[in-house]
Every structure is written in C-alpha cells, then in structure tokens.
Amino acid sequence: MNKWFCSAAVGASLMLAGCTTDPYTGEQKVSKAAMGATAGALLGAAVSSKDDRAKGAVIGAAVGGGAGYYFDRQEQILRQKLQGTGVSVTRTETGIILNMPGNISFPSGQYAILPSFYDVLNSVSLVLKEFDKTAVKVTGHTDSTGGFEMNQTLSENRAKSVADYLGSQGVARTRLHSYGYGPRYPIASNDSPDGRAANRRVELEILNP
Question: Is residue 77 part of a domain?
Fold first, then answer.
C-alpha cells in the first residue's frame, strides 16, 4: 500500500476518533488533540524516509497530540466541575479561559472573596494541581463606572485575592501571575446594566508555561 496513503489514513482516523459532541451546543467538533495529532502524523510522514513514512506518521501523531490532549482533558474536567456555577469555560488556541463574573465571586466594590465562591475555587485548584504543567494568568476587570484609579486598584486586588487563594490551596505560586486591567478590556458594552455586569469579572487563563 502507498506509504503516503497510509499516513493520510492515520490522520483521517485520528480526526474521526477525535470528534466529540459539545454538551452545550450539541454540535460535533474535533478536539485540539486530534488536530495536533493529525498535523503531527502528516509532518512525521513528510520528514521520514520513503520506506518508513507510515511509522513516521504514527510517531508524529503521538507527539503532535500530546499537548492538545493535555488541555482537552483539563477542559473536560473543568466543565464537569464548574457546570452550573456561573463560571464559563472557553477553549482557545493557546489554552483555557475561566470567566468568573464579579457578582458571584466578590461583594460589590470589594476584593474579599465571597464565602460561597470558595467551593468553586477549591474545584479549580484541584484541577490545576492535577495538571501542573501549566502557567495560570489571573486578570481582574471592571466596568467603566467610577474613577479609573479606583477601578484599576480594585481589579488588581481582586486578581491577587484569587491568585492568593489558589496558592493557599496548594497551587504552586510560581505558576500564578496576577494582573489588574481596570476597565480597559470590556467584553460587552458599558452602556447597559447587563453589559457592565459582564465586564466586572476575574479571568483565569491556563497556558503553556
């Protein structure tokens, strides 16, 4: 059988195996791991000798799918643990973003974490400790109401509160990096109450170090 055909077959099989159903939309999607494995299979075949392309495709698939699988698995567990909490889980090209709305995480205008939010952060910390090969960027955001300096300080303190709590739960502090951005990066219009509520948030971005 043609070796190029074999490598293409490996890639196609991986893509099909990596198809999953999004539990929120019902749509079929291909996991990042499957896409990485397919790309690795094709690259492995390309750089292998003519007589060893099928073997190169399999090796390339294993290497290419590794990082993608690591994040796919984290995403799956985080979705399970955070379903119904109000925290959204978004997979990106570079990692995973957890959006924690201010109304469920902090009292209005304060940076002391709501006691009811500890269980959510405990669940997140367990996953972060299990998947410990990542960096965690914690960012605080506000709406545009009030003075800029006040919002900047509030956003910094909220991000630090979350990072400090995760550290207290055993997440290595060298992995945690906190930043406050005040009102600079809105995700909705500040012209409506709903938009302002969306902008008041803390985000955790889980990334390759």
Answer: no
